[in-house]
Amino acid sequence: MDARSAPDEDTALERAALDVLDANWTGTATVPSVGRYPHQWSWDSAFVAIGLSRRRWSRACEELLSLFAGQWSTGMVPHIVFDPAARDSYYPGPSIWRSGECAAAPRGVPTSGLTQPPLHACAVWWIWRYARDRDAALAFVRRTWPCLVAQHRYLASARDLGGEGLAAIVHPWESGLDDSPAWDAPLAALPMVGYACGLEDWRSDSHHDRWVWLALRYRDAGYGPGYLRDEHPFAVEDPMFNGIWLASCLALADLAGVIGADGRPFEEAAERIRGGLLARLWEGAFYARDLRAGSLIPIRTIGGFGPLLDPGMPATVVGPLVELLESCFLGPSGYPVPSCEVRALQFDRERYWRGPSWVNTNWLLRQAAAGHGLGALERLLATATLRLVRQAGFRECFDPFDGMGRGCRDFSWSAALTLDLLA
Ligand code: 2M8
């Protein structure tokens, strides 16, 4: 059935999506989910702003502005901006990150010390593109421009840990694909034993303990760039993070035209990232590179399709990537796109980023398909995503075989991006 064929159903779905976003709005930002994620997350807010830009334009602007209120003086946009009024139910919360003790963090706005995929320039472009009030839109672009430029400068300097133009993530949480099997090997290699963080000794082998240990180590080093470069034991060049960064560089080049700034540095940055992706992460497919081990991580996940977001990727790369998508991700799953290759040993249909399908990555791939003129793939991804939310609601993620909803309900980016798909 064509998922877009029934106007009444579309209206009801749109209403339901707006209800979720209204319920998750705190007055200054949209939380991903009221119970499980009661603060503001960085790339979630970018997706929410994109989804709201055609329905609640001013709120889309507020969403990004409240995120930028948490930006550090280094330019880093933190992955969580904490709401001091929220129940302290999320771990690790502000008392673990202690951003207030770091001179680079903003005063009075508690945040995490990590970042997340830099989709924000794309979101600002969306807001600009769909504004009815062009003066207000221009003012918004001018206001956010310095934040975006600082964010990109931070990535190009403090995060080019491999020295070849790509940004490295220094924690799995920075990828947004938290428990992806791509991070299993670098996590397993962490030298955890013997490091006491003041809370307890680390003897456990669980992923969660390793995530927290890594965050604490970075915190205890004062969140410094020198420590990241020379000592931090987790540094990975992720194709999704860098594909999104590249797309945002292109958005910045376009936004430069809007405000009469020079767009060339951002076009050049996009070219540098494209060169880095091809030279360092491409081996018949895109893989993440473990900078500490000095090798590619040989597992194909949804992250490997991030570079498709670049409309300038050569056909010799786009062709095999689309073939891989069709044969190992779309073909074997009834409800695409699974977050890990279905035949991989690590694939798990029930566990977050180890198998389930997600609305945000489906949406990103749909954008990528549109950018390459792949109309059939673009339509398939839109239809499949709308089918998921129609059948299971705005869940956090979905079983890729039977479409059953997983994770929390009333999840913001699932609702927001549905609005964009319906638009
Ligand atoms: C998940 O990540 C957080 C940590 O940042 C968590 O598991 O607690 C991921 O799905 C991430 O991509 C997302 O931004 C976040 C909030 O929705 O949840």
Task: Fill in the keyword field for this structure.
Glycoside_hydrolase_63, mainly alpha, 49% helix, MGH1-like_GH, binds (2R)-3-hydroxy-2-(alpha-D-mannopyranosyloxy)propanoic acid, four-stranded antiparallel sheet, two-stranded antiparallel ribbon, glycosidase, Mannosylglycerate hydrolase MGH1-like glycoside hydrolase domain-containing protein, Glycosyltransferase, 423 residues
Summarize the structure in words.
With 423 residues, this protein is mainly alpha-helical. The protein has a single domain, classed as Glycosyltransferase. The chain is built from 16 helices and eight strands. A four-stranded antiparallel beta sheet has the order 3-4-5-6. Strands 1-2 form a two-stranded antiparallel sheet. The chain starts with 6 loop residues before the first helix and ends with a helix. It binds (2R)-3-hydroxy-2-(alpha-D-mannopyranosyloxy)propanoic acid (2M8). (2R)-3-hydroxy-2-(alpha-D-mannopyranosyloxy)propanoic acid (2M8) binds next to helix 2.
Give the secondary structure arrangement, pairings included:
Layout: H1 7-23, E1 40-41, H2 42-52, H3 57-68, E2 80-81, H4 94-97, H5 120-130, H6 134-158, E3 168-169, H7 172-175, H8 184-188, H9 207-220, H10 225-230, E4 236-237, H11 239-259, H12 264-281, E5 289-290, E6 295-296, H13 315-330, H14 359-371, H15 375-392, E7 397-398, E8 405-406, H16 412-422
Antiparallel strand pairs: 1-2, 3-4, 4-5, 5-6, 7-8
Helix pairs in contact: 1-16, 2-3, 2-5, 2-16, 3-5, 5-6, 5-11, 6-11, 11-12, 14-15, 15-16
